[in-house]
Amino acid sequence: MDSNKKLGLIGRNISYSFSKKFFEDKFQKLMLKGFSYDIFDLGEMEEVESLFTTPELLGFNVTIPYKEKIIDYLDELSEEAQVIGAVNCVFIQNGKKTGYNTDAYGFEKTLLLHKKPHHTSALILGNGGAAKAVKYVLDKNGISSETVSRNSILNFDNLDAEAVQKHKLIIQTTPVGTFPNVEDCLKFPFEGLSQEHLIIDLIYNPNYTQFIINASEKGAKTVNGFYMLEQQAEKAWEIWNFQKK
Q1: End of a domain among 60, 79, 100?
Q2: What's residue 243's pLDDT?
Q3: For this UniProt entry, which segments traverse the membrane (predicted)?
Q4: What predicted TM-score, i.e. pTM, was given to this entire model?
Q5: Which of 63, 84, 100 is the last residue of a domain?
Q6: Which of 56, 49, 38, 46 has the alpha carbon at shortest distance from 94?
Q7: CA 129 to centroid of chain Cα atoms
Q8: DSSP H or E run through 122
Q9: Does residue 200 have a pLDDT over 50?
Q10: pLDDT band at 17 (very low <50, low <70, confident <90, very high)
Q11: Of 71, 133, 169, 193, which cross-links 104 as Cys (Cβ 3.0–4.6 Å)?
Q12: Is residue 2 pLDDT above 60, yes or no?
């Protein structure tokens, strides 16, 4: 591998990012001298154009709110990213920019670790880039799902306990409750939850969102987004370093 490889994360208001520490620890552990990982906080998507002119840029991760918008700036998409319609990892080789979705990989690892045979239908809370990756994985694993968002037919105003009882798997994909707004919680009929429910909240900071706390009080099994985050980062590392030349 050549020296001075630049990696990073693009998003907006992302000073709290897990990725920087994760990759810097990895460089240290693997004793890689010529790698750096930076935070590129972009006010607007267009600003990525100047980032692309950075010499030695090997690739970057993409987070909220650019997972869908980044697609217009890329030359190619992996099969998964194409189907999902969202990208969270970009690899640059000989000037060619390819988009991948490693969120799907990370979420699938989490799902398969925790799901039980009765988790046959799901509610996906939110409809952003992460929700798209979640839906892709659920479809792939034969789990039917309904999306709950502000503007969908099933929305946060008409979602009731009865609908929640029917779907034993709930995936919270919105940023509501993320640090520093840890008191915030989605409007949700927690009384519809039971011990048969599995709640996966993709947020990892804080460890226990208000959503997870409320759900666990009803006896539901709860999982946060940390393992998914770790796994999607490992997958990104693999893409950046072990691509067939």
Answers
A1: 100
A2: 61
A3: none
A4: 0.93
A5: 100
A6: 56
A7: 8
A8: strand 121-125
A9: yes
A10: confident
A11: 133
A12: no
Establish if 241 belongs to a structural domain.
no
Q: Check residue 50 and give its pLDDT.
A: 94
Distance (Å, whole) CA 32 – CA 19:
17
For residue 172, the one-letter residue type is Q
Residues 6+ apart with CB under 8 A from 132: 68, 84, 85, 86
In this structure, are 140 and 219 located in the same domain?
yes
CATH of the domain at 19: 3.40.50.10860
CB-count burial class (<10 Å; 0-12, 13-18, 19+) for 245: exposed
Number of domains in the chain: 2
DSSP bridge pairs for 47:
none
How many C-alpha atoms does 165 have within 13 Å on its Cβ side?
A: 5
To the query of whether residue 67 is one of the catalytic residues in this protein, the response is: yes
**CATH number where 182 lies:** 3.40.50.720
The answer to whether 167 touches 146, Cβ cutoff 8 Å, is yes
Q: Kindly tell me if the per-residue pLDDT of 145 is higher than 60.
A: yes
Q: Which amino acid is at 16?
A: Y
Catalytically annotated residue among 5, 6, 20, 67: 67
Mean pLDDT throughout 218-234?
Answer: 97
Residue 129 phi/psi, 5-degree rounding, is -60, -40
* Dihedral in degrees, nearest 10, Cα atoms 193, 125, 76, 99: -70
% of the chain surpassing 90 pLDDT:
92
